[in-house]
Design goal:
Blueprint (H helix, E strand, L loop, with lengths): L1 E6 L4 H10 L5 E7 L10 E2 L11 E4 L6 H11 L2 E4 L6 H10 L4 E4 L5 H17 L3 E9 L9 H13 L5 E4 L11 E8 L6 E8 L3 E7 L4 H14 L5 E3 L1 H5 L1
Parallel strand pairs: 1-2, 1-4, 2-3, 4-5, 5-6, 6-12, 7-9, 8-9
Antiparallel strand pairs: 7-10, 10-11
Family: Belongs to the DapB family.
Subunit structure: Homotetramer.
Pfam families: DapB_C, DapB_N
Length: 248
């Protein structure tokens, strides 16, 4: 059984993961880290440095500010870290990649199996469609989400960008008066209500449109993927891993 320290255990996603883990015979939450108090069946610490419970991996669903302490703890205990948080700066992303030289590191902007299957599809079709199609991405989330565009929108956008040999530019929104350039990918963020997460990629050509859409009905979809990632990371050597490895 994979023993997990859950960072952000009392947040919305943390509670969903805890509930699913209780029904999972392969994964056990042995400790949590959170500044907020709640009723938990495992010991909870205010910061990761205080945790004295043996574990196999750290699962992080918190905020980017926790990055340094998680990497430090992972190195100290020689255990892997699964980063599911979004909103990292470019400097922080580089830190995550550097950490993979010494410990196993897993990072994904979206833990949904469905989103990551779509991401693999985009790698195949983007190069085929780009010449004759304009590409736009629309993402929708609840009104409490802090970062925009979403990490998932950037994940999909970068997958398309890296599949095309031409230089591609991201355009966030369409403010101003000018025609779009063909080598642009427009990314549009909507923040309202309690939307869990919707992502739509539009390929619009002359007389035809292809739309690929994913809708998260509940947060459980991310929790399922996170627990699968925990199973995947058990016993891994140092290196950088993602949901591509899990679904492959």
């Amino acid at each position: 059984m994979v023993r997990v320290i859950l960072n952000g255990c009392n947040g919305k996603m943390g509670k969903v993961i805890t509930g699913l883990a209780e029904k999972n015979s392969e994964v056990s939450i042995v400790a949590g880290v959170d500044k907020n108090s709640a009723e938990n069946k495992f010991p909870v610490f205010h910061n990761i440095g205080e945790c004295d419970v043996d574990a196999d991996v750290i699962l992080d669903f918190s905020r980017p500010e926790a990055l340094d302490s998680l990497i430090e703890y992972g190195n100290k205990k020689n255990i892997g870290v699964i980063f599911c948080t979004t909103g990292y700066s470019e400097q922080q992303i580089n830190k995550i990649k550097e950490a993979s030289n010494s410990i196993p590191i897993f990072r994904s902007a979206n833990m949904s199996i469905g989103i990551n299957v779509i991401n693999k599809v985009l790698k195949d079709i983007s190069v085929l469609l780009y010449k004759n199609f304009d590409i736009e991405i629309i993402e929708k989330h609840h009104n409490q989400k802090v970062d925009a565009p979403s990490g998932t929108a950037l994940l999909l956008g970068n997958t398309i960008k890296n599949s095309i040999s031409e230089d591609i530019n991201f355009v966030n929104g369409r403010e101003g008066i000018r025609k779009r350039a063909h080598n642009e990918i427009g990314i549009h963020a909507v923040r309202c209500g309690s939307i869990v997460g919707e992502h739509e990629v539009i390929f619009a050509g002359q007389g035809e449109t292809i739309e690929i859409k994913h809708t998260a009905i509940s947060r459980e979809v991310f929790a399922v993927g996170a627990l699968k990632a925990c199973e995947f990371m058990y016993g891994r050597k140092s290196g950088f891993y993602s949901m591509d490895d899990v679904i492959s």
